[in-house]
Amino acid sequence: MGGDGDFACALEKVSSQGCQVEVVSLKSSTSEALIKTSDRYTDLQDIIQDICKA
Fold first, then answer.
1. 7 pLDDT band (50/70/90 cuts)?
2. Own/partner pairs, 21-24, CB within 8 angstroms, 24+ separation
3. Residue 3 backbone phi and psi in degrees, to 5
4. Per-position b or e across 9-38, b if 16+ CB within 10 A of its CB
5. Which domain holds residue 38?
6. So what's the pLDDT on residue 1?
7. To the nearest whole number, what is the mean pLDDT of the chain?
8. Residue 54's pLDDT is what?
9. Is 2 contained in some domain?
10. Domain count, the chain
11. pLDDT at 53 exceeding the cut of 80
12. Has residue 17 been placed in a domain?
């Protein structure tokens, strides 16, 4: 999807329907609102070693 804060409203709607929301992105290009709205956030920078091994 994207890291724009405008998506936070959509995530809130999905979350209110009982879905868990997970965001995986570079923190530097993701709005704080999007991160706070998610149930789980993973910064790609933290898992880059695992990605490169695959």
1. confident
2. none
3. -100, 5
4. eebeeeeeeeeebebebeeeebbebbbebb
5. 7-53
6. 61
7. 89
8. 62
9. no
10. 1
11. no
12. yes
pLDDT tens readout for residues 18-29: 999 999 999 999
Distance (Å) of CA 10 to CA 16, 17, 24, 53? 10, 11, 16, 33
In 3D space, the residue among 4, 44, 42, 51 whose CA is nearest the CA of residue 23 turns out to be 42
Distance (Å, rounded) from C-alpha 31 to C-alpha 41?
Answer: 12
**Which three-class secondary structure state does DSSP give residue 29?**
helix
pTM: 0.77
Alpha helices in 1-54 (DSSP H): 7-16, 32-37, 48-53
pLDDT (mean) for 30-42: 93
50 token code pair: 């695992």
Which structure tokens are listed for 47?
């898992």
Asked if residue 13 belongs to a domain, the reply is yes
